[in-house]
Amino acid sequence: MNHLNIKFKTIEDIFSSLAEKLKIGYKETLGEYSLLIPKDVGEGLINGFQFPSGLSLYNFSCKFNSTTLISFKHQTINPVKIIQCIQGSIESWLKSEKKKHLLKPHQYTIVSSRLGEDHTLRFEKDVAYKISYLEVNREIYTESLPFNINDANPLFYDLFHNSHILYGHLLPSSFNIFTSEIVKAVWECDLKGLPRINFLGAKVLEMMASTLSTYQKDIIRNRHKGLKPEEYDAISLIANTINHNLQERKTNKQLAEIAGMTERQLQNCFHKVYGKTVNEYIQDLRLSRALELLQTNENSISEVVNSIGLSSHSYFSRKFKDKYGISPRDLIKSS
């Protein structure tokens, strides 16, 4: 078995590291990187593109002579990754996950990892693969949007806000015909130079939009199980209320009144949708918002504590360290 460990900060790092480990060269043309698999290792091509708005696309069209693991570790961000399997069944997992996730042809998964965590793909011996791997830099992507990510659907806020609200492999599912056609157009593009880059950049945005639409429908379909439509709408309202009024420290009783439910109904329905209690959701949101504010180096700990609706500095510091393994003060010093 061959194991390629790729630590990187940029797309160029990925291809220079792959080239070094495979003992072969790579080339770059107008921001497109490509590498041919050497014959003693297998056959095929790996290429990658980096686009504005924080999007990078990697395509694997290859076959290996022995089972090969490729582990990616981004050293500066914790991106969202959308993996689409076109040909060949591939296993995907994060280092701290307890299970491996099998993607079959015409399936996708969304992967949300922690900073500096290994994400591994397993390519079986003598199997022909076509895999598209779309990486999203959450911070750059959300800054490129013409609105505040807080105003987005809570599903997308949770996914793209630079936080740990969501973690792991999310909802492996089949991608739709529209996405399939977009992926096919990307793989079959034979344009050269600037027209090629423009075409692929547009297709990547289409791919992202189509996949997110499928993700939203899949999530809603799953979360609606056991809930009436009006109950789901009420929970969406509560999530939005919490996101936009974190500093106000609303009680569960107040939130239940907004939802038109009893406190017990609110907790039961909220748990069905988000897999956690209202208080757990609020705490995760507060800590992730605090992490974002502290990383800017523009806010004191007191300002952060007040802005997320807490009053006790010691309580905040303890919970923050429990979640992220570092105290707020030490995080500021290291930034």
TrEMBL record:
Organism lineage string: Bacteria, Pseudomonadati, Bacteroidota, Flavobacteriia, Flavobacteriales
Species in which this protein is naturally found? Mesonia oceanica
Protein name listed in UniProt = Regulatory protein PchR
Recorded superkingdom = Bacteria
